[in-house]
Amino acid sequence: MHDEIQLISDGDGLAVIGDPASVDRFLTSEGLTSKDLGLHRLRPSLSTTAAATQSASEIAANSGRWVKLTKESAQLAHKHGLRGSGKSGLDTGVLKGNHGQIKGFVEFVKGPTTLLTNPALLAGAAGIMAQLAMQQAMDDITDYLATIDKKVDDVVSAQKDAVFADVMGVDLVIEEALTIRDQVGRVSDVTWSKVQATTMTLARTQAYALLQLDAIADKAEHESNVGELATLTKQAETKVHEWLAVLARCFRLQDAIAVLELDRVLDASPDELDRHRLGLQMARRNRLDLISRSTERLMARMDASAGTANKKVLLHPNASRDVVHSSNIVATAVADFQGRLGIEHGRQSLQAKRWAEAATEVTDKAREAGADSVDAARRLGGETLDRAKSATGELSNRITDRALRRRKDETLDHNQD
């Protein structure tokens, strides 16, 4: 008995495609948790292609499961020697095993019988994988919004600007579109016409939220008074929390639009699906980079504020402690937010310098400075004494010489008389 499964990795997830029993055995042997890939969704879009009959039979014969890539599951691509494609950005390979055991070796696709050699099927599978990765990210953000102290709905309702009310409207429109998609299995012209008008609102709101975070960082950067810093950082605890929640909601909705957009392209222009998928991934990375730069700058300013406070802890012990405490709260909130969006960070919590510790440091420095001063005084005193002794000796010699000369002169005068 020969088993064959086909592996596809796009950097975010791993698709395992093949006979249902073989796929299950592979996932069990690797200890992986998976979701249904949903290959059946490709049938309508592939029905008009020249190889429609072959595509339909391949879909019917195969089961597909999707695994979110973690550090552990990402090692499978290396373990099984998947081959990368610069054009599609995918790593693919076929794994064969004997007697029901999925192990042994990887054989790169050569024959015409595998799903991976069908460009339309491969592009469609990659498109579905991108959707599943974004839906997983949406779930992670939903969990994030549910666990923070002040939910984004509360934040938005408290704002006076109408743009935040627009975001809630966008949320309703997109959630409705996703519900219809789940029921119908596709995104119709009517549904898409409602959704595509929401992108500008989300972009505007995201830009506004980033500006608010930048403004908080600017205020902290230009304030050196520890008392004022304590007030600013305390206010930042709440404000940063709120704006991060707004950003998270915007990012989640942008991912939802991308999911719907891929469905729309798969339905209307399947030949463009692969290029469109790559374009959406690049746009998503650009959004992440923009958010990363803004939040990293904010954390850097919070750290700088804490450093300023620690330097002045002797003069402002309570305010300095408050600045460090608030800075750590802000940085922790930012780090949690970044983690949910997949942004890496390496910031560690700063400790507030205790007054006694700072006083000890100052005392030690003073003692060191005092010891240096004493040593310098001693050296100076020694050098002065040596110079004084030398000067005294020279003066004594000059006086003795003059006295001897006077005596000689007096003796000569006496003899002459």
Automatic annotation (TrEMBL):
<feature type="compositionally biased region" description="Basic and acidic residues">
    <location>
        <begin position="399"/>
        <end position="417"/>
    </location>
</feature>
<feature type="region of interest" description="Disordered">
    <location>
        <begin position="364"/>
        <end position="417"/>
    </location>
</feature>
<protein>
    <submittedName>
        <fullName>Uncharacterized protein</fullName>
    </submittedName>
</protein>
<feature type="compositionally biased region" description="Basic and acidic residues">
    <location>
        <begin position="364"/>
        <end position="389"/>
    </location>
</feature>
